[in-house]
Amino acid sequence: MGVDAYKKTRVQRNVGRKVTSTNLYLKLLIKLYKFLARRTDSQFNATVLRRLQSTRTARYPISVSRLVKQINTAKDKTRTLVVVGTVTDDARLLTVPKLNICALRFTETARKRILAAGGKTLTFDQLAQQNPTGTGTILLRGPKVREALKHFGRAAGLPGSHAKPYVSHTARRGKGAR
C-alpha cells in the first residue's frame, strides 16, 4: 500500500512575491535592485531586493541607538549602515556620533539628530549610484519580535483572533479595560 501523493505536496510554490504597494518610489527601487541583482554577483543586492519586496510589517523599524551599537562593534567606523525600513529616534541616547545611514524612511527627529552630528542620510538610489555592489556597507534589520506585532491580524474580539486589543488603561485587577 502506498501513500496518495496530491499535487500540492509535489509542486513547489512560487517564491517571488508581487508587490501590491502603490508607492511609486518603492516600485522604482525594486526595479533598480532587480537590475543590480541580475547584473552584479553581489549577494547584497539580492538581499536588499528581497527585503524591499517584503510586506510593510516585515520591514522592521530600527532605532538610532541600535545603529550606534553596531557601528561601535564594527572594525571600520566609516562604513555605511543600510536599513530596509524606518530609522527611528531614541531619546535615551544623549549623543549621536557621526553616522552614514541609508534607509527607506527616517523619522523627523532621527534625521535631524544624524545630520546635526555631521552624518549622512542616504536614499537607496543614492546608495546604488555610490556603491552598486554594496562593499563597505553593513546591512541591518530591526528586531522581528516586537510588541506591535501582537496587535496585528484579525480584529481583537472576533472568532479566531489572537490580536491584543489597544486599551487606554487598565485599572485595579484589569477591570477598567473592559
TrEMBL record:
Which InterPro entries does the entry mention? Ribosomal_eL18, Ribosomal_uL15/eL18
Ordered alphabetically, the record's keywords are: Ribonucleoprotein, Ribosomal protein
Name a GO molecular-function annotation. Answer: structural constituent of ribosome
* Gene Ontology cellular component terms for the protein in this record: cytosolic large ribosomal subunit
**Which intervals hold domain Large ribosomal subunit protein uL15/eL18?**
2-178
Write out the GO biological process terms: translation
Q: Where are the transmembrane segments?
A: none
Q: Give the family, as the similarity comment puts it.
A: Belongs to the eukaryotic ribosomal protein eL18 family.
Q: What is the name listed in the Swiss-Prot or TrEMBL entry for this protein?
A: Large ribosomal subunit protein uL15/eL18 domain-containing protein
Q: Which organism is it from?
A: Paramecium octaurelia
